[in-house]
Amino acid sequence: MAMAARLLRRTLRATEVAPRFLSASYGLVQRAAYASGGIVDVGQPTPQSHPELLADGEITPGISKEEYISRRKKLLEVLPEKSLAIIASAGQQMMTDVVPYPFRQNGDYLYITGCMQPGGVAVLSEETGLCMFMPDTDKEDVVWQGQTAGVDAAVEFFKADKAFPLSHMQKILPEMIERSKGVYHNVKTSSSSYKNLDAFRRASLNNKVKDLTYYTDELRWIKSKAEIKLMRESASIVSQSLLQTMLLSRTHKEESQLAAKIEYECKMRGAQRMAFHPVVGGGANASVIHYSRNDRKIKTGDLLLMDVGCEYHGYLSDLTRTWPPCGRFSPAQEELYSLILETNKECIKLCKPGTSINEIHSHSVKMLIKGFQELGILEKGKSIQYNYLNPTAIGHSLGMDIHDSVTLPKDKPLEPGVVITIEPGVYIPPAPILNESAPGRYRGIGIRIEDEVLVTEDGHELLTASVPKEISHLTTLMSMGSEPAADGHELRAACS
Question: Start and end of every Aminopeptidase P N-terminal domain (predicted)?
Fold first, then answer.
């Protein structure tokens, strides 16, 4: 009943013109702020509220206001003349009618504004600079959800040139659209708040509306020094956390336990969330590329594949290792693992300015086809069957999203400051699927070895080098400090 009454009151208030907005220019300036001990709460960490996270002059941890302003200028420079860019924030997704999922901001909106809260729309043009339309909030919203950024915060903290309440966008944005020669917006994350405007619909009918994503992907392709520092830390967090989880796998055999362990370790080291739901696949589950159930017990002698990543202040990591928790590879497992490891290392060597992801992928396919044929997994002359063993690309760009800058061509030459993954693998299900065929000893084996690579001026830097992947290192790690098993034998003897 309380929730229903609250929703009714909010609906009634939404039909009124709130007196707290004062007209200036277009200027509807919201005068509402919450302060505790002299510190203004803008709905996310600031240097004043969280000095342990942000230095003076930073809008988000590690990223200064100058860098955000520079990003906006660069976007306007690459867009056609007299363009208008509209970037909507992510919306709040709900588990049920009143229970929200944890919120994660849209990458483009965060990249341009630094605002980590839902509901806003950013508009960028040469004429107005950055104009932010901020969600309307009231005292009851604050009681239930906490303080959020308003118009004042948009100008004073996020350094927007203009700011208005979202409820007034329909009065202001149409004229901006009419004056522009082209309207660019993020098609995949567009919002009905502006798409339903008559001016936007007319612009769309007149072919004035285009996708902004290619331009923002181009800007996000090369990371700044500040971004690289955050990505190094994200990679370090997940690397240390996976190492701890690998050690735990010697004694804890439930996939769910290891999924919980990696998340715990990442968050204890400062990550805000996981980059994606961890893949924890024991045995045949590892042959499912995006396995996510994590509900089985890992059997003695099985390999364990874990594909994990975390988010550190907006920047993601992505790492995969495959190892035998019992401490030893079987002959068939070792044959396949050695091939994937060799491919991983050879492809990492190719990561340098001028090379493309496509070139590296082609090299990996040649290596794996040759190796699969030598092992009798792939018949000679039937290389088309390769895709049944490994349908994935060798890697992808990484940054604020796991698959970052996805609209850019895969033959785009790598440049210093680009971060990519290198992740060869093989996925052989317990029973044949479609035209795939493999000897019985390889059935039910899935292996992937994934690393993060930063392209540098003279080559590359391996961001996940601290996590073991050599066979000798893995077997030593799994045997270190072996504890007695329930039957009195050491863990390393459990493979037999």
Answer: 63-194
Residue 26: per-residue pLDDT: 39
CA–CA gap between residue 165 and residue 147 (Å, rounded):
15
- Answer yes or no: is pLDDT of 21 > 80: no
DSSP state of 116: -
Q: How far apart are CA 109 and CA 83, in angstroms?
A: 17
Collapsed DSSP state (helix, strand, coil) of residue 174: helix
CB 408 within 8 Å of CB 216: no
Identify the DSSP state of 449. Answer: -
CA-based nearest residue to 375, from 360, 364, 363, 386: 386
Which of residues 119 and 485 earns the better pLDDT score? 119
What are the counts of helices (DSSP H) followed by strands (DSSP E) for the chain? 15, 23
Quick check: helix, strand or coil at residue 321? strand
Q: Which two tokens stand for residue 495?
A: 């493979």
DSSP sequence for 403-419: S-STTS-TTSPP-TT-E
**3-state SS class at 248:** helix
State residue 270 phi and psi, 5-degree precision.
Answer: 110, -5
Using one digit for the tens of pLDDT, what is the confidence trace for 125-166? 999 999 999 998 888 888 888 888 999 999 999 999 999 999
Residues with Cβ within 8 Å of 248's Cβ and at least 6 positions away in sequence, in order, are: 257, 258, 261
The whole-angstrom separation of Cα 300 and Cα 332 is 15
Alpha helices in 119-189 (DSSP H): 139-145, 151-156, 169-179
Return the CA Rg of the chain. 26
The per-residue pLDDT for 480 is 82
Residue for token digits 């007209």?
23
What pLDDT score was predicted for residue 98?
86
pTM: 0.89
CA angle centred on 308, ends 93 and 337, rounded to 5°: 145
Helix-helix angle 198-205:169-179, to 10 degrees? 30
pLDDT at 11 over 80: no
Amino acid identity, residue 315? Answer: Y
Quote helix, strand, coil % in the chain, to nearest 5: 40, 20, 40
Q: From CA 203, how far away is CA 90, in angstroms rounded?
A: 23
